[in-house]
Amino acid sequence: MLTHIKQVANHVGESVRLGAWLYNKRSSGKIQFLQLRDGTGYIQGVLLKKNVSPEVWEQATTLTQESSLYVDGTIRADDRAPSGYEMDVTGIEVIQEAEEYPISLKEHGVEFLMDKRHLWIRSRRQAAILRIRSVIISAIQDWLNGQGFTLVDPPVLTPSSCEGTTNLFHTKYFDEDAYLTQSGQLYMEAAAMALGRVYSFGPTFRAEKSKTRRHLIEFWMIEPEMAFVEHEESLQIQESMLSHVVNHVLKSCKTELEILERDTSKLEKVTGSLPRITYDEAVELLNREGMEFTWGDDFGAPHETKIAESFDQPVFITHYPTQIKAFYMKPDPTRPEVALCADLIAPEGYGEIIGGSQRIDDPKLMAERFNEHELSQEDYAWYLDLRKYGTVPHSGFGLGLERTVAWICGLDHVRETIPFPRMLNRLYP
RNA sequence: UCCUCAGUAGCUCAAUGGUAGAGCGCCCGGCUGUUAACCGGUAGGUUGCAGGUUCGAGUCCUGCCUGAGGAGCCA
């Protein structure tokens, strides 16, 4: 039986066996320190020359970085250890003496590390990020499941564009053309009419030539869709979901956030309701701040950053002009030139992490929108059916997982939030 | 697609137009509490590619390739 490093506190004074990799080694003539990791944690193995057999001592001196080992030894509490525990090593069984490991403990450049991404994820920092990503995913799913949402998986291969705006990855579906999904939303609307409150969690593909710290070609979205939920209630659901996620990560990922040196005081401010600003107010704010901006234009990244800087939490920008938003968004009945929609902009320049809206439920208006946007009513007959057979008010939103992870972790690029990022110029490994 | 910046040892980087160097890593030696340990030594180079200017180019010029982060687009 192997003991996990995470559990060593329960084995003080006991002789245990670890399965581990050697991530670093220091030696000083008659004492050797083995830095061990096993995926659950880190511990230092100590060998004193006078206390171990010559064979074990000799074995330890030849070990290379990232060699795989079974290590036997006794667990001891020690104030000098960062984790509070050390292991007095009594035996080492080498599974494999690793070849010269390319990633040293010194600095490396982005291109080098991305080429070695399959090894880079072994590093303490990258492993911490991936662990937080996992916790964020399960926090979202736990919260949604607890609120009566049903997980529904929309297709990845689709016959045509869902929104018709962005570039899709084209492929063949036998003799037909097919595209990788850029959003499951339209299918989720169908699912909401069947199951009430639903959400999807899956990959999304955008063949955009975007090349910034906020963009991936393949990224993961959570897309809830809710029947009988109108704009205001949707916003409340979004803010309580997000604050649940942030609080859960703060509670259960203390070690990981420390490794990342995240300033958690900024996250602790996310406690419930989030600030809101209408598009109109945002335009005023920009003009007041000296940025020229005309009502009716869409915000660019610098505008979003400027707006977000005025708040210390994520902020909803609501009621965008109907003209610049997606065809399915419901116009505000009291003011049809703006839509019942909201983007949630994260602080610290992380950009939009949620985009959502109430959807058009009126079949006539939806038909008009199809004409305006020159969408094929034939191709989308199934979607228009949803407005013919018992249409109801409904709302939904999409949360970009990687931007959310980047913000919570305080990273300067989304490429570190996903195990194997797909980016412009990056399909390997 | 556009703008800006970069490419020199395995890695991170130096080098007025004038003999290509350092730190780390590898290898060898030393050190009884190291925390990216430290100290000494060895090896390691088609300066991204192709042209051009020059007595002489890592350095200047032209083209190309690769990468970076920003714009647009978006989550």
Automatic annotation (TrEMBL):
Query: An example Gene Ontology cellular component term from the record?
Result: cytoplasm
Q: What class of enzyme is it?
A: ligase
Return the EC number.
6.1.1.22
What this protein catalyses is:
tRNA(Asn) + L-asparagine + ATP = L-asparaginyl-tRNA(Asn) + AMP + diphosphate + H(+)
Cite a single GO MF annotation.
Answer: ATP binding
Q: Would the keyword Aminoacyl-tRNA synthetase be found if you checked this record's keyword annotation?
A: yes
Q: Tell me the ranges covered by the Aminoacyl-transfer RNA synthetases class-II family profile domain, including all copies.
A: 130-429
GO terms in the biological process aspect are: asparaginyl-tRNA aminoacylation
- Ion transport recorded as keyword: no
Q: Which Pfam families match?
A: tRNA-synt_2, tRNA_anti-codon
Task: Spell out the CDD domains in the cross-references.
Answer: AsnRS_cyto_like_N, AsxRS_core
Q: Which domain of life is it from?
A: Bacteria
Subcellular localization? Cytoplasm
Keyword annotations: Aminoacyl-tRNA synthetase, ATP-binding, Cytoplasm, Ligase, Nucleotide-binding, Protein biosynthesis
InterPro entries membership? Aa-tRNA-synt_II (IPR004364), aa-tRNA-synth_II (IPR006195), aa-tRNA-synth_II/BPL/LPL (IPR045864), Asn-tRNA-ligase (IPR004522), Asp/Asn-tRNA-synth_IIb (IPR002312), NA-bd_OB-fold (IPR012340), NA-bd_OB_tRNA (IPR004365)
Similarity section: Belongs to the class-II aminoacyl-tRNA synthetase family.
Mind telling me which NCBIfam families this protein's record contains? asnS, PRK03932.1, PRK05159.1
Q: Which HAMAP family match?
A: Asn_tRNA_synth
Share what the entry says about its subunit structure, partners included.
Answer: Homodimer.
Q: What is this protein called?
A: Asparagine--tRNA ligase
Q: What is the lineage of its organism?
A: Bacteria, Bacillati, Bacillota, Bacilli, Bacillales
Gene (name only): asnS
